[in-house]
Amino acid sequence: MKIGTLTFFCGKMGAGKSTEAKKIARDTNAVLLSEDEWLASIYPDKITSLNDYLKYSGLLKPQIKQLVESILATGTHVVMDFPANTQSQRAWFRTIISEINAPHQLIFIDAPDDLCLKQIQRRRIEQPERAATDTAEMFAQVTQYFSAPTADEGFNVTTINK
Q: Could you cite one Gene Ontology molecular function of this protein (predicted)?
């Protein structure tokens, strides 16, 4: 049986991960799963801080992992707009890949801070519901934990330089 390919993303807040995820899902006829959409629908108005995000994201991940593994097992490709911005986040993706031996692609969007901040500001205008969390302060708080993928992590990485 053929296993679908898992595509996921690493990049600072505002780098363009969601935009790229939508494009790749459309181009590859893949199922697109967006963490922001899942969190907003299951936990509306609950996420106003980094700690809130960590709490609710952690509650969501076990069910998402099972769903993704089930979809991949059918041979269907999955694009996950869930961050792989830290080693621990990438370790979670590793469990999905390794448990069903799925092919994968980690897309690293390498964007400078000034571009990320401009894109965050534009997103605040286009999506007012994100105004509370899409701020320069949140960017600074989240970015301190960001780590680019390294070769020793063993992922198939494609880098997009912005």
A: ATP binding
Write down the pTM of the prediction.
0.94
Point out the least confidently predicted range of 5-14, 31-40, 123-132. Answer: 123-132
* Count of domains for the chain: 1
Strands 6-11 and 31-34: unpaired
Cα separation, 44 vs 26, in Å, equals: 27
For the domain that residue 77 is a member of, what is the CATH number? 3.40.50.300
- Domain region containing 52: 6-161
